[in-house]
Write a structure and sequence with these properties.
With about 500 residues, the chain is α+β, with helices and mostly antiparallel strands. The protein has 3 domains: about 1-195, no CATH class; about 270-340, Orthogonal Bundle (Helix Hairpins), CATH 1.10.287; about 345-495, Heat Shock Protein 90. It is about 55% helix and about 15% strand. It has 13 helices and 12 strands. The strands form 3 sheets. The protein has a 5-stranded antiparallel beta sheet with strand order 2-1-5-4-3. Helix 2 runs antiparallel to helix 7 and helix 7 (about 185-240) packs parallel to helix 9 (about 255-305).
């Protein structure tokens, strides 16, 4: 059965299992009905055996021989003593050779004395009693006779559209040997069995109908949507444009609707990441081509020149290009990693002033002593600036902005990090430097991937730093813009959404 079920659909498995169970119940039912019939017949057998034993006892007490005349006399004279005969269809007496010698059907409806009947008709009256069903039990009687059984035989028999329970038992008293057969109408037994059978059939029909209805519901509302989801995943796998009914499934409010919406969101996110990775790969390939071409040219010239000064310049170019490629690959890998990690991070209530203070202290410890660049943090000391965000990502935003400003700044210059709120009460981070500023009039370009306006030391920068900042700001639903200062330097401003927080 396991091999059969393995290749079936859920609906087919459901119908197959129910069919097997249904057939099993039908088989059990037939055994049950058979057992009921047997029990009812056994009850009749006990009653019949008791009647036969009582009859034999009375025959023995009355010293009546097993003959036609004797049995006839017994039936007429003792009828009032055997009221239980009246509940039976008939009682037939046979001698030891299976010859008919008496029958309750030979008793007239009126109570007459044997002597009166004898005077009127003689003994032949009993011999000539018409009995249409006299030979009905002959076959059963012969089988019992041949079996030589001393126990009674009870069975069910249909006679002219009616059912009868009959019992046969041998007789042996005072050298009298013969057989007694009792027949009793059994229509009540058949009625009981048929009643139970009809009930079971009706119940089975209802169960079958319920199974079919449930199968339809199962297929219509559960299996078909699942098939659509499977087809949808196949379309995603094959990158096909084939349409499915998943939009209909997405409107459901049950678990399948939730699953389909989650699957659709996951697919959209995967497609977004794939598109992003493809764009990144294209841009990275484009950016690497230039330094690779420069490396190739420099290496060819180095092998052909004996000028030491020229060789040193070419070596510096090679070193610069190698650093540039290395930086590109490193930042590109980090950016892809961030894309995957950010999606799993959870935002919480954080104070951007506290985070900015920690980053500024770290950078001052490095660049104040190294390049004499002073970084100052300005904010309202008594006010908190809470946002809904990711702690380490805010650190990354501030650190990248400071690295960008430092790269444009000379020694002994100052960089200011301001933490405040705009006119609408939204938390804001502003980084201001005294460097060369942006050469582009369209400052929005500086947030593009691989963009940089530092040709002289591009090897230290990949052009991804500000793009990463832009992506992280978008993650926090913030806004970012850049502009040049009036005198010198540049300013980058980030505004976060205003959030209402309860006072702790």
């Amino acid at each position: 059965m396991g091999k059969i079920l393995k290749n079936l659909s859920i609906l087919q498995k459901f119908l197959f299992i129910n069919l097997v169970v249904f057939i099993f119940i039908i088989i059990i039912t037939f055994f049950y009905l058979g057992a009921i019939q047997k029990n009812l017949i056994n009850e009749k057998q006990k009653n019949h055996t008791n009647i036969i034993n009582q009859t034999i006892l009375n025959l023995e007490k009355s010293n009546i021989k097993l003959s036609e005349y004797g049995i006839s006399e017994f039936l007429f004279s003792k009828r009032s003593r055997f009221p239980y005969f009246e509940k039976l269809d008939r009682v037939i007496f046979f001698d030891d050779s299976l010859n008919w010698i008496g029958d309750t059907r030979s008793i007239p409806s009126s109570t007459l004395l044997v002597e009166e009947l004898t005077q009127q008709s003689g003994e032949d009256n009993f011999k000539n009693q018409e009995n249409k069903n006299e030979t009905v039990f002959d076959e059963d009687l012969n089988k019992y006779y041949l079996s030589k059984s001393e126990k009674s035989l009870t069975n069910l028999k249909k006679i002219q559209e009616q059912f009868f329970v009959f019992s046969i038992m041998n007789v042996n008293y005072l050298n009298n040997k013969g057989y007694i057969l009792i027949s009793e109408n059994a229509d009540n037994i058949i009625a009981q069995i048929e009643e139970r059978e009809n009930f079971i059939i009706r119940t089975a029909f209802v169960v079958l109908l319920v199974i079919l209805i449930f199968s339809y519901v199962l297929n219509r509302y559960f299996l078909k949507p699942i098939k659509n989801l499977v087809a949808y995943t196949k379309i995603i796998k094959d990158k096909s444009n084939e349409k499915t009914d998943i939009e209909r499934v997405k409107t459901r409010n049950d678990e399948l609707g939730i699953l389909s919406r989650s699957l659709d969101e996951m697919t959209s996110e995967l497609n977004k990441r794939i598109a992003t990775a493809e764009n990144y790969s294209t841009d990275l390939l484009h950016e690497i081509r230039n330094p690779l071409a420069s490396l190739k040219s420099a290496s060819e010239i180095i092998s052909e020149t004996d000028d030491k000064i020229k060789s040193e310049k070419l070596i510096n170019i090679v070193s610069h290009d190698v650093e540039r490629i290395e930086r590109l690959i490193t930042d590109y890998s980090q950016m892809l990693k961030d894309e995957a990690v950010i999606s799993k991070e959870t935002m919480k209530k954080i104070d951007i002033k506290e985070i900015a203070g920690s980053v500024v202290d770290d950078f001052n410890n490095i660049y104040n002593s190294k390049r004499k660049i002073q970084i100052k943090l300005k904010s309202n000391g008594s006010e908190n600036y809470f946002i809904l965000g990711i702690n380490n990502r805010i650190e990354q935003i501030i650190a990248n902005l400071l690295e960008n400003s430092i790269s444009f700044s000379d020694e002994n210059q100052e960089i200011v990090v301001e933490i405040n709120k705009d006119k609408k009460g939204r938390p804001r981070i502003v980084v201001i430097d005294e460097g060369t500023g942006f050469s582009e009039k369209d400052t929005a370009k500086i947030f593009n991937r691989f963009y940089s306006n530092r040709p002289e030391n591009f090897g230290e920068h990949s052009g991804l730093g500000l793009n990463i900042v832009k992506n992280l700001v978008d993650l926090h639903n913030g806004q970012i813009k850049a502009e040049n200062n009036k005198n010198k330097g540049a300013k980058v401003e980030i505004i976060f959404p205003a959030t209402q927080w309860k006072v702790d």
